[in-house]
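Posting this for the archive.
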Amino acid sequence: MQSTIFRMTDPSNSQRSLSDQAVVWLVRLQAHDATDADRARFASWYATSDAHRSAYSEAEAFVGRLRQPAQAVWEEQHLRRSSAPPQWTGRRLASIAACLAVVAAGFLLWPMVETTPGEWLTTHKGEQRRVELADGSSVLLNSNTELRMAYSDHRRQLALQKGEAFFTVAKDSTRPFEVTAAGGLTKAVGTEFNVRVRDAAATVTVTEGVVEVSQAEPADEHARTALPIRLHPSETVRYSHDGMGGITRSDTLSSLAWRRGQFVFNQQPLGEVIEELNQQWNGHVFVGSGKLRQLPVNGVFDIHDPPAVVRAIERTFHVRSVTLPFQIIVLY
């Protein structure tokens, strides 16, 4: 079925299913501008049948399950803001209002700018930024990324705190180019490679030249440290504090498609696809069941239009969606 976008002024539209009506009533009643007339109309709707009451209970339970991830989004954004967030009433509305802090307008591609050593380079959701470094190297930051620079006379050090970045390294054999991320170190002289940090793990992919990847020194000085591994073009490795994975081949046309402004999915589980969308979009997409998260997704999409990906998913898998305030989409 196609997506339906509900007008909050008419929650009882008979063309909607009971479950859809229940979700919209839930949001409407908890909103700051809910009126006595709204509550009276809801009471009448709720009293209609056991099915209406059951649908509302299920909606409460479902939206309640969204509260934890939504709250995490809110907390992350709240730390970056000096002003207090808007005040909202209602226990259940917290799961929706939490996402308000991530709403911002537009997708921006920053022009190339020069940097000085010791500074932070950052991008917000939906933003990419290309930066020319002082030594002639360059870095392209993907959406929602934080990178710390620390150049010296002897080495070129960068620390990727979160997100993803593609590095084009100027050759300088006297000063290694080093990127730390998720408890590991990637070292290069003159090459091109990508580093991605997700869920306390890092993935390194090489497109040109050779890089050396190693884990940071263990906290226990008696523990064994894995030997560094060398990556060649189209090779990738994933590591975390728990250990180093094996080297695998990477389809860089797909895995690094973000540099061309694209999403490229090849039999990728829907849950992973949604994670990609949420990294790039100021809204937030939730999936209502674990079964849906396993559906394989294929296609090429515009990275600047995540809602178009959602529409394609709806058409392909015949799933439904509810579009809530603050750019929240629920697939079910």
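The mean pLDDT is 79. The domain at 261-332 is CATH 3.55.50.30 (Phage tail protein beta-alpha-beta fold).
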